[in-house]
Design brief:
Layout: E1 3-8, H1 18-32, E2 37-41, H2 56-75
């Protein structure tokens, strides 16, 4: 079983620093182990009519930050 950990908030325009994402992931890794943790946005980048989410540009930047954090975590 794996645990998807929401490490970025898709409803905010600011892109979370990679260091913050790494810290969030490490808390989950400490609980369940690195082989069971998947890094994800809080609940995706889908559009909600009454509650818009970040733009495509911001979503891309957030996903890029998740990828960078994952690479850093793999280094150890």
């Amino acid at each position: 079983m794996r645990l998807g950990v929401g490490v970025v908030n898709q409803k905010r325009e600011d892109v979370e620093p990679v260091a913050d994402i790494v810290a969030r992931a490490r808390r989950a890794i400490d609980l369940v182990g690195a082989d069971r943790v998947l890094l994800t946005p809080d609940c995706g980048f889908a559009t909600f009519a009454d509650n818009p989410v970040a733009s495509a540009r911001v979503a891309e930047a957030k996903v890029r930050a998740i990828v960078e954090a994952a690479a850093e975590l793999r280094k150890g």
